[in-house]
Amino acid sequence: MPTSIDSYLVASKYYDEAYAVMRDLTDAPFYIDLAKESGGPVLEIGCGTGRVLLPTARAGIEIHGLDNSAPMLAAIKQNISRESLAVQKNIKLHSGDMRDFRLNRTFALVTIPFRPMQHMFTMADQVAALKSAGAHIAEGGLLAFDVFYPKFENLPRRIGEETLEAEWSPASAPDTIVRRYFRKDAFDKINQSFSLTFFFRTYRGDKLISEEREGLKMSMYTYPHLRALFLLAGLEPVAEYGSFDKTPLDNASEEMIFLLRRA
């Protein structure tokens, strides 16, 4: 499988500033606390631009980041270059596919934060990704990951409608505003996936001066589906939560978060 692809070619340019204004993101402290408890080293699969990786490294934890998106890896390298040498020494990056990579070492904690597992669309890919992650868990170590709790009743609704998700003024052009919209394009009930398009529109005043767009596809999981995947991948749950505040996983949950060990 290719180790580097051009996914997130557009989104990588806007990623850090877009998610910096999304105040409902609460996952980073959860993963950083896990990293501190583990003592490191940590492997983060799907490290993106470093939203979780960088504060983990700043906490003094050795952390390795893996991604297969060349634009994302380019962005995180730029972000790392702005950190102190002490922080930079805690970081090592790898280009690889989460389904078949092998780093020939193990880690006290392996994480897959912010839903990269939802970019695995077949049972074979899902099992392969979990097996690859599990192969890097040290004796007594853990794997942690999250996916969203699907609201199946909402998935067929508002197909084709655009929704404003975030807006910000870029540091490089403070006289402009970037607005990120998303449009749900299709829902595949059989394969439990949906596709959408992100629009990044830049305005100066009321005038639209540029627009970029990029598609995305995501899979969905039910709880029994995940438990079956764990069995197939040789993993067993240690803990499961319905939020990053560690509330119980129940019918009110918005997230499904798991801590796993090798069975």
Q: Describe it for me?
A:
The protein is globular. The strands form two sheets. The protein has a seven-stranded mixed beta sheet with strand order 3-2-1-4-5-11-10, with helices on both faces. It folds into two domains: 11-150 and 221-262, Rossmann fold; 162-219. The protein is of the alpha/beta class. It has seven helices and eleven strands. α6 (123-134) crosses α7. The protein has helices at 11-20, 27-38, 53-58, 70-81, 85-88, 123-134, 223-233, and strands spanning 42-45, 63-67, 91-95, 107-112, 137-148, 162-168, 177-188, 193-204, 207-219, 235-241, 255-262. The protein is 25% helix and 35% strand.
Q: What is the first-to-last residue Cα distance? A: 27 Å
The low-confidence parts are none
Q: How do the strands of the widest beta sheet line up side by side?
A: 3-2-1-4-5-11-10
- State the share of residues found in helices, binned by percent: 25-40%
Q: Report on the biggest sheet.
A: 7 strands, mixed
**CATH-level-2 architecture of the largest domain:** 3-Layer(aba) Sandwich
CATH class value of the largest domain: Alpha Beta
Structural class: alpha/beta
Shape: globular
Number of strands: 11
The CATH topology of the largest domain is Rossmann fold
Element-level helix/strand string: HHEHEHHEEHEEEEEHEE
Counted up, domains total 2
Rounded radius of gyration (Å): 19 Å
